[in-house]
Design goal:
It is built from 11 helices and 11 strands. The protein is of the alpha/beta class and 295 residues long. The protein has 2 domains: 144 residues, D-Maltodextrin-Binding Protein, domain 2 (3-Layer(aba) Sandwich); 103 residues, 3-Layer(aba) Sandwich (D-Maltodextrin-Binding Protein, domain 2), CATH 3.40.190.
């Protein structure tokens, strides 16, 4: 009988110890991630990034009870490095930078905007340009955005070759990388390049808010649609926090005035759950162009 009681006591103590250590681990996780570092693609000026994401960060803090800090990145490669080195917990990535980070670590896609399932890029010329087609711009200077940009480089390069049989380095007199979509538009506006390609959503935003005028640029071609941006986290981020973050995005409702402001600044009507399979077509393109692995 004594052996039975000893065994029962030992079992109870064992279960208690397991529960204790699980609770301690959970407390440590909660403490460790009391501040969530957020990284976003530096595809516009820092002022514009703060304008676009500050309401979202405030909303996420309200929804989760955690603090969120925007970690500035100097360029796309810097953001990729910050995310891979786990100096950023929650990252807003383009399709290419997401795939490049996923090739090196276990990362989890959380959500995409509705527009990201069928994203496009605009090829821009100055409003006074006589060009009517891309073929009219042979031997002219041209600018991509960032070399790591999906909408400013990867997919435009792919569609130039697929739809127009144009290899940029052979067709244009010069190929630049501006580093950001707004910079590309300004290069075209200011006559520094004859043609530039940029994220269609950002171009429309610049036209809406007056950073660009209708008299400044003209869209000469729009690419076919492709999947693009995604909010992602590291797999090591506790599951309950990942779920909190995903639910906070999914609960944004355009019928709520505060939510509508947040969504509008990010060019979204609603957020949708994202999965790794959403980027399979991009993976194939990146592999075909040999730019899936970052330099």
């Amino acid at each position: 009988m004594k052996k039975f009681w000893y065994a029962l006591i030992a079992a109870v103590l064992g279960v208690t110890a397991v529960i204790y250590f699980l609770l301690q681990a959970n407390v440590q996780d909660q403490s460790l991630y009391s501040v969530i570092n957020v990284g976003v693609l530096p595809d516009e000026s820092m002022d514009q990034l703060n304008y676009r994401y500050s309401p979202l960060i405030e909303y996420l803090s309200q929804q989760t009870g955690r603090s969120f800090e925007l970690v500035p990145a100097t360029d796309y490669n810097h953001l990729l490095t910050l995310f891979i080195e786990q100096k950023v917990d929650l990252a807003y990535l383009g399709g290419l930078t997401f795939l490049q980070s996923a090739a090196q670590q276990n990362v989890v896609p959380l959500v995409m905007r509705d527009v990201d399932m069928r994203f496009t890029s605009y090829f821009l010329v100055d409003q006074d340009s006589r060009a009517q087609d891309l073929s009219d711009l042979k031997d002219m200077p041209f600018s991509f955005g960032s070399e790591l940009s999906t909408s400013g480089h990867l997919m435009p390069r792919h569609f130039l070759q697929l739809n127009h049989q144009i290899v940029p380095e052979d067709f244009f007199s010069e190929v630049r990388y501006s580093g950001a979509h707004d910079k590309t538009a300004y290069l075209v506006r200011d006559g520094q390049v004859e043609l530039g390609v940029a994220n269609s959503e950002i171009v429309r935003s610049m036209l809406r808010d007056g950073r660009l005028g209708e008299q400044d640029i003209r869209i000469i071609w729009e690419t076919p649609p492709y999947p693009d941006y995604v909010w992602a986290v590291h797999e090591h981020l506790p599951a309950d926090i990942r779920l909190q973050l995903q639910e906070a995005f999914l609960q944004l409702d355009s019928n709520d005035d505060q939510h509508l402001d947040i969504l509008s600044r990010m060019g979204a009507r609603v957020f949708l759950p994202a999965g790794i399979g959403d980027f399979q077509s991009l993976r194939q393109v990146a592999e075909s162009l040999d730019i899936l692995t970052p330099n």
